[in-house]
C-alpha cells in the first residue's frame, strides 16, 4: 500500500475565462475506514490564491501551516499579497528542501495573477512544478481525473459553465475511486467574488 | 521538536528532519512514493557555428503522462543551456541553482560565463550527493573558447563529445546521430538531424513523447525554438464537446463572498504651511 493511499484524496483545478475553479473531495479515511466526510483539503492563502493539498493528511496540514506562516511574513515585509507564480516557487522550494525525506503531499495551486490572469500549477511531492494552461489534477483519483478532464474541458469557459464542468469531472472520477468521494467542495474565483459550493455526491 | 520554532527562512541546502519518520513508515511496509520523472530523449550536437540542443516534452509519473508539454531545456546563462533527464525536481533544482551561481560569478568577474564553469559546478554538486540527486544532463553552450557540448551523469562523471544523447530514448536518438552526423554541419542541417533524433525517441521510446523543443546557440546569440515540431496533434476531439446545463449538478450549499476592492494610497500634495 502506498503512502498516498493511506488517507485518499482527489483534487482538480481548471482555468476558465478570467476565472479559475479548484475542487476537492471531502473524505478523510484511514485505509479502508472512513473517519470524516467534511475534511478540508483546499486552503486559502489570500483572497485570490488557493492551495489544495492531496496525499497524507497530516503532512498536508503541517505543510499548509508552514506556508501560511511564510506568506504572513511576506505580507508583513512586502506589504502586499504574494503573486501565484512566486507562491508556487515557494512551495517548490519548501518541498525540495526535504528531497531525501519528503512531505507526502502533492499540491495543486490556483490563483488570479496581475490583470486577473488565472494561474494553475501542480507539483509532485519533491516540488517539480508542472504549469498547465487548462487543468491540473492530483490525488488517488488522479488517473480517472486525467481522463474526465481531457474529455470535458473546453478553453475559455464562463464561470457558470466552468463550475458545472469541474463538478462533473470531479464527481465522475471519484465514483471510480474507493478512497475518495463522499461529496465535493468547489471554489470558483472570479475577479469580483468567490463562490464556494458543496456538492451532493455518492456516499460510498 | 523545539527546533520547529526556528522556522525562519532556512540557510539553504537540504533538511533531513523527516527522514526518521519516513524510515519508520518504510519498515512498516509503506511503499515510498514515485517521483515525477522525465522519461525523456535529450540530445545535443556541435555544428559549424555553435551547438544545437534538442528535447522531447513528456513528463511521466509512473506509467501516466503527467505533463504533455513540459520544458526540458533549461536556461543556465545567456550563452549556455542545459537539457535534463531523470527526476524532474532534481533537474530543475540543480539547473536553477547552478544558473544562479553562474550569474553571481558573472557579476564578480565581469565576464561572460564559460561552459566549463557550469560543468564543474554541476559535477561537483552531483558527486557530493553520490548519485542520490538523480539528474542526467546534456550541457551545451558557446563561450570565448568556442562551442562546447558535455554530458553529466547522476554520479558526477562527465564526457565531452561532438554529439550526445541521454535519457530513456537515448539509444533511439543515438542511432540517428551515428548514421547522419558529420563535422561542419550547417544550421539547418543540424536542426534537421536533431529533430529527427528526437522524433526517433518520441515514436520508439514509451518514456518520451509529444513535441520537439530545439535550442540553437551560436556566438553572441541563443535561439530557443519552443515546440519547433508538433508531430502529435490531438485529433480525436469531439466537435460538440460536453456541455452541462446550468443547474445540472446537485448543490447542497452555496456561499458567495464578494472580494473587497484593494484601497490604493495616492501620494497627496504637501500641506501648505
From TrEMBL, chain A:
<dbReference type="GO" id="GO:0043161">
    <property type="term" value="P:proteasome-mediated ubiquitin-dependent protein catabolic process"/>
</dbReference>
<comment type="subunit">
    <text>Component of the proteasome complex.</text>
</comment>
<comment type="function">
    <text>Component of the proteasome, a multicatalytic proteinase complex which is characterized by its ability to cleave peptides with Arg, Phe, Tyr, Leu, and Glu adjacent to the leaving group at neutral or slightly basic pH. The proteasome has an ATP-dependent proteolytic activity.</text>
</comment>
<keyword id="KW-0539">Nucleus</keyword>
<comment type="function">
    <text>Non-catalytic component of the proteasome, a multicatalytic proteinase complex which is characterized by its ability to cleave peptides with Arg, Phe, Tyr, Leu, and Glu adjacent to the leaving group at neutral or slightly basic pH. The proteasome has an ATP-dependent proteolytic activity.</text>
</comment>
<dbReference type="GO" id="GO:0019774">
    <property type="term" value="C:proteasome core complex, beta-subunit complex"/>
</dbReference>
<dbReference type="GO" id="GO:0005737">
    <property type="term" value="C:cytoplasm"/>
</dbReference>
<comment type="subunit">
    <text>The 26S proteasome consists of a 20S proteasome core and two 19S regulatory subunits. The 20S proteasome core is composed of 28 subunits that are arranged in four stacked rings, resulting in a barrel-shaped structure. The two end rings are each formed by seven alpha subunits, and the two central rings are each formed by seven beta subunits. The catalytic chamber with the active sites is on the inside of the barrel.</text>
</comment>
<comment type="similarity">
    <text>Belongs to the peptidase T1B family.</text>
</comment>
<dbReference type="InterPro" id="IPR033811">
    <property type="entry name" value="Proteasome_beta_3"/>
</dbReference>
<dbReference type="InterPro" id="IPR016050">
    <property type="entry name" value="Proteasome_bsu_CS"/>
</dbReference>
<dbReference type="InterPro" id="IPR023333">
    <property type="entry name" value="Proteasome_suB-type"/>
</dbReference>
<dbReference type="InterPro" id="IPR029055">
    <property type="entry name" value="Ntn_hydrolases_N"/>
</dbReference>
<keyword id="KW-0963">Cytoplasm</keyword>
<protein>
    <recommendedName>
        <fullName>Proteasome subunit beta</fullName>
    </recommendedName>
</protein>
<dbReference type="InterPro" id="IPR001353">
    <property type="entry name" value="Proteasome_sua/b"/>
</dbReference>
<keyword id="KW-0647">Proteasome</keyword>
<dbReference type="GO" id="GO:0005634">
    <property type="term" value="C:nucleus"/>
</dbReference>
<dbReference type="Pfam" id="PF00227">
    <property type="entry name" value="Proteasome"/>
</dbReference>
TrEMBL record, chain B:
<comment type="function">
    <text>Component of the proteasome, a multicatalytic proteinase complex which is characterized by its ability to cleave peptides with Arg, Phe, Tyr, Leu, and Glu adjacent to the leaving group at neutral or slightly basic pH. The proteasome has an ATP-dependent proteolytic activity.</text>
</comment>
<comment type="function">
    <text>The proteasome is a multicatalytic proteinase complex which is characterized by its ability to cleave peptides with Arg, Phe, Tyr, Leu, and Glu adjacent to the leaving group at neutral or slightly basic pH. The proteasome has an ATP-dependent proteolytic activity.</text>
</comment>
<dbReference type="InterPro" id="IPR000243">
    <property type="entry name" value="Pept_T1A_subB"/>
</dbReference>
<dbReference type="InterPro" id="IPR023333">
    <property type="entry name" value="Proteasome_suB-type"/>
</dbReference>
<dbReference type="GO" id="GO:0004298">
    <property type="term" value="F:threonine-type endopeptidase activity"/>
</dbReference>
<dbReference type="GO" id="GO:0005839">
    <property type="term" value="C:proteasome core complex"/>
</dbReference>
<dbReference type="Pfam" id="PF00227">
    <property type="entry name" value="Proteasome"/>
</dbReference>
<comment type="subunit">
    <text>The 26S proteasome consists of a 20S proteasome core and two 19S regulatory subunits. The 20S proteasome core is composed of 28 subunits that are arranged in four stacked rings, resulting in a barrel-shaped structure. The two end rings are each formed by seven alpha subunits, and the two central rings are each formed by seven beta subunits. The catalytic chamber with the active sites is on the inside of the barrel.</text>
</comment>
<feature type="active site" description="Nucleophile">
    <location>
        <position position="40"/>
    </location>
</feature>
<dbReference type="InterPro" id="IPR029055">
    <property type="entry name" value="Ntn_hydrolases_N"/>
</dbReference>
<keyword id="KW-0888">Threonine protease</keyword>
<dbReference type="InterPro" id="IPR016050">
    <property type="entry name" value="Proteasome_bsu_CS"/>
</dbReference>
<dbReference type="GO" id="GO:0051603">
    <property type="term" value="P:proteolysis involved in protein catabolic process"/>
</dbReference>
<dbReference type="InterPro" id="IPR001353">
    <property type="entry name" value="Proteasome_sua/b"/>
</dbReference>
<keyword id="KW-0963">Cytoplasm</keyword>
<keyword id="KW-0539">Nucleus</keyword>
<protein>
    <recommendedName>
        <fullName>Proteasome subunit beta</fullName>
    </recommendedName>
</protein>
<keyword id="KW-0378">Hydrolase</keyword>
<dbReference type="GO" id="GO:0005634">
    <property type="term" value="C:nucleus"/>
</dbReference>
<keyword id="KW-0645">Protease</keyword>
<dbReference type="GO" id="GO:0005737">
    <property type="term" value="C:cytoplasm"/>
</dbReference>
<comment type="similarity">
    <text>Belongs to the peptidase T1B family.</text>
</comment>
Amino acid at each position: 500500500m502506498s503512502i498516498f493511499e493511506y488517507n485518499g484524496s482527489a483534487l482538480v483545478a481548471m482555468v476558465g475565462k478570467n476565472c479559475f475553479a479548484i475542487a476537492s473531495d471531502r473524505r478523510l479515511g484511514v485505509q479502508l475506514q472512513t473517519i470524516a466526510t467534511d475534511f478540508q483539503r483546499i486552503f486559502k492563502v489570500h483572497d485570490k490564491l488557493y492551495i489544495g493539498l492531496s496525499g497524507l493528511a497530516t503532512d498536508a496540514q503541517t505543510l499548509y501551516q508552514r506556508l501560511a506562516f511564510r506568506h504572513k511574513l511576506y505580507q508583513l515585509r512586502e506589504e502586499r499579497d504574494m503573486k501565484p507564480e512566486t507562491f508556487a516557487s515557494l512551495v517548490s522550494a519548501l518541498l525540495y528542501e526535504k528531497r531525501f525525506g519528503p512531505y507526502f503531499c502533492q499540491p495543486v495551486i490556483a490563483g488570479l495573477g496581475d490583470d486577473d490572469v488565472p494561474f494553475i500549477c501542480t507539483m509532485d511531492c519533491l516540488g517539480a512544478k508542472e504549469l498547465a494552461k487548462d487543468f491540473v489534477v492530483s490525488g488517488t483519483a488522479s488517473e480517472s481525473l486525467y481522463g474526465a478532464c481531457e474529455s470535458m474541458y473546453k478553453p475559455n469557459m464562463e464561470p457558470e459553465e466552468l463550475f458545472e464542468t469541474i463538478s462533473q469531472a470531479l464527481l465522475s472520477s471519484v465514483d471510480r475511486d474507493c478512497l475518495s468521494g463522499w461529496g465535493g467542495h468547489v471554489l470558483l474565483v472570479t475577479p469580483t467574488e468567490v463562490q464556494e459550493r458543496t456538492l451532493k455526491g455518492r456516499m460510498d | 521538536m523545539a527546533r520547529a520554532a526556528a522556522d525562519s527562512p532556512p540557510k539553504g541546502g537540504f533538511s533531513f528532519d523527516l527522514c526518521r519518520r519516513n524510515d519508520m513508515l518504510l519498515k512498516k511496509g509503506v511503499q515510498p512514493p514515485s517521483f515525477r520523472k522525465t522519461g525523456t530523449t535529450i540530445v545535443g550536437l556541435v555544428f559549424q557555428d555553435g551547438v544545437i540542443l534538442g528535447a522531447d516534452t513528456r513528463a511521466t509519473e509512473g506509467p501516466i503522462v503527467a505533463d504533455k508539454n513540459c520544458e526540458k531545456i533549461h536556461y543556465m546563462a545567456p550563452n549556455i543551456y542545459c537539457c535534463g533527464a531523470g527526476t524532474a525536481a532534481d533537474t530543475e533544482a540543480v539547473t536553477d541553482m547552478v544558473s544562479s551561481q553562474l550569474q553571481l560569478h558573472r557579476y564578480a568577474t565581469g565576464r561572460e560565463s564559460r561552459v566549463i564553469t557550469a560543468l564543474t559546478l554541476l559535477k561537483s554538486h552531483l558527486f557530493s550527493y553520490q548519485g542520490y540527486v538523480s539528474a542526467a544532463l546534456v550541457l551545451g553552450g558557446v563561450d570565448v573558447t568556442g562551442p562546447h557540448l558535455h554530458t553529466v551523469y547522476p554520479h558526477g562523471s562527465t564526457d565531452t563529445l561532438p554529439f550526445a544523447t541521454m535519457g530513456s530514448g537515448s539509444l533511439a536518438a543515438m542511432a540517428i546521430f551515428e548514421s547522419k552526423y558529420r563535422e561542419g554541419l550547417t544550421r539547418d542541417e543540424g536542426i534537421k538531424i536533431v529533430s529527427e533524433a528526437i522524433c526517433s525517441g518520441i515514436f520508439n521510446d514509451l518514456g518520451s513523447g509529444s513535441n520537439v523543443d530545439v535550442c540553437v546557440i551560436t556566438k553572441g546569440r541563443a535561439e530557443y525554438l519552443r515546440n519547433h515540431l508538433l508531430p502529435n496533434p490531438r485529433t480525436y476531439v469531439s466537435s460538440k464537446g460536453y456541455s452541462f446545463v446550468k443547474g445540472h449538478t446537485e448543490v447542497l450549499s452555496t456561499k458567495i463572498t464578494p472580494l473587497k476592492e484593494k484601497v490604493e494610497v495616492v501620494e497627496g500634495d504637501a500641506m501648505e504651511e
